[in-house]
Amino acid sequence: MRAFHAIAVALMLALSGPAFAVQPDEILDDPVLEQRARDLSTGLRCLVCRNESIDESNADLARDMRILVRERLVAGDSDEEVIAFLVDRFGEYVLLRPTTEGSNIALWLAAPALFLIAFGGSLIYLRGRAKAKPPTNELSADEQKRLDELLKE
Q1: How far apart are CA 130 and CA 86, in angstroms?
Q2: Which of 21, 37, 87, 139 is the most exposed place for a label (fewest CB within 10 A)?
Q3: CB–CB of 129/122 below 8 Å?
Q4: 2-94 falls under which CATH superfamily?
Q5: What is the pTM assigned to this prediction?
Q6: 8-23, pLDDT tens digit by residue?
Q7: Cα–Cα distance, 120 to 116 (Å, whole number)
Q8: Kindly report the CA angle at 49 between 43 and 52, in degrees rounded to 5?
Q9: Among candidates 57, 69, 74, which has minimal Cα distance to 23?
Q10: pLDDT tens digits, 22-68
């Protein structure tokens, strides 16, 4: 019975992948161009759905962008030219993986830099704690006398 459940769960997980939203009327006759279009579409962000590629999105704008990609490929544009055209038209936000040039370099370097700063701060803190003297639990003579008085009451 456990094997049946394991197989059922594995089958559900295998079938739960992203459903492609490409309509049959969008598909190109040339399989090579269609594959290029699919490859490009998976790297382009749907501007309506945010973090979903245009290949997975059912939004009207994503459909228009898929058709635009296919039109540019049929016109003879290279993959880089299609990407450049879409970036010029919609901005760099359309790329699911932004470039590492220009002002984006600050975004790419910020996370590792902040991690190194936090790691260094943690090391300094832990070394300081290791060198600190442990607190003593001994009472002074006056404190012991006062404690004895309080316990007698």
Answers
A1: 56
A2: 139
A3: no
A4: Cytochrome C biogenesis protein (1.10.8.640)
A5: 0.59
A6: 666 665 554 444 567 7
A7: 6
A8: 30
A9: 57
A10: 776 677 778 888 899 889 999 999 888 878 888 888 888 988 999 99
Residue 135 corresponds to which tokens in the numbers above? 């607190």
* Tokens 């001994």, located at residue: 138
Question: What's the longest Cα–Cα distance across the chain?
Answer: 98
Strand partners, 95: 44
Report whether 41 contacts 66 (CB < 8 A): yes
Q: Which of 37, 61, 64 is nearest to 47 (CA)?
A: 61
Ordered by start, the domain boundaries in the chain are: 2-94, 103-133
Length of the chain: 153
- Determine the Cα–Cα distance for residues 61 and 42; give it in Å rounded to an integer: 15
Q: For the CA atoms of 19, 81, 51, 103, what is the dihedral angle to 10 degrees?
A: 160
What's the token pair of residue 120?
């260094």
